[in-house]
């Protein structure tokens, strides 16, 4: 219990430092603060804690990685469609500015401690993510395996690169699959809200490209559910050995499945 409380306190302090870092009086006047993915934070903390890094280094690596993710997420929200409203134009310009600001902060923090290798690692990851985004969104005739590969890079390249750097192959595999699983859950929710979801679209197009309307939506949800449970099985296989990481992954999977009402559906199917 003491250890759990210690970890929770450490993570709380990192969250506070992150939010302090991203505060900018002009940006926050017009835009909401970036959303911090707590799963990403917990995995980064647990992974680097396993290497017994000094607390200062551990904190800096986590904060800088989260800043890069905030920059990528913020730039992802920028629409390229034509707009006539001055307010929308200003918000779009500020979103670009905010993303650039968060990105400059990661460089500043690592340069301050002269960690050139980590600067290079994160820069390479940013390049890899942006290249995967371009390939994924430009390819209208998406191949399923290529789409999945691109999504895994987009969702977890930062953590994968850090795992490689610190020679933690299991963490790399778990992060890749876990954030893919999480993306699938998010796309399923978007489907139910009537939104277009590129990953599931690529899967449906390869299997039932002629479907339209309700039949297409039904097929999309079925395909999404299929890949969600395939991903769950893969994660269960990766998390067979008892560890805090395995426990966290299993609990979070069940939480996300429950929130999506997928556990009840699966039980009903098997019953």
From TrEMBL:
It comes from Anaerobacillus isosaccharinicus. This is Heptaprenyl diphosphate synthase component 1. Gene3D superfamilies: 1.20.120.1450. One of its GO terms (biological process) is menaquinone biosynthetic process. InterPro entries: HEPPP_synth_su1. It holds the Pfam family HEPPP_synt_1.
């Amino acid at each position: 219990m003491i250890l759990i409380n210690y970890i929770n306190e450490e993570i709380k302090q990192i969250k506070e430092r992150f939010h302090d870092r991203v505060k900018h009086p002009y940006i926050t006047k017009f835009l909401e603060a970036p959303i911090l993915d707590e799963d990403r934070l917990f995995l980064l903390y647990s992974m680097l804690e396993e290497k017994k890094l000094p607390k200062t280094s551990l904190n800096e690596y986590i904060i800088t990685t989260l800043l890069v993710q905030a920059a990528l997420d913020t730039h992802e929200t920028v629409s390229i469609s034509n707009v006539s409203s001055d307010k929308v134009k200003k918000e779009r310009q500020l979103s670009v500015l905010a993303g650039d600001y968060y990105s400059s902060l990661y460089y500043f923090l690592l340069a301050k401690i002269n960690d050139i290798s980590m600067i290079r690692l994160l820069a390479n990851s940013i390049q890899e993510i942006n290249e995967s985004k371009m390939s994924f969104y430009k390819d209208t005739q998406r191949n399923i395996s290529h789409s999945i590969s691109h999504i895994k890079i987009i969702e977890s390249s930062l953590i994968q690169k850090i795992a490689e750097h610190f020679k933690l192959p299991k963490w790399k595999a778990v992060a890749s699959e876990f954030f893919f699983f999480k993306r699938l859950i998010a796309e399923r929710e978007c489907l139910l809200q009537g939104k277009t979801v590129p990953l599931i679209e690529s899967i449906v197009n390869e299997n039932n490209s002629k479907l339209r309307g309700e039949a297409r939506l039904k097929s999309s949800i079925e395909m999404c559910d299929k890949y969600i449970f395939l991903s769950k099985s893969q994660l269960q296989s990766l998390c067979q050995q008892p560890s805090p990481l395995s426990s966290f992954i299993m609990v979070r999977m069940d939480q996300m499945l429950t929130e999506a009402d997928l556990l009840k559906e699966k039980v009903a199917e098997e019953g």
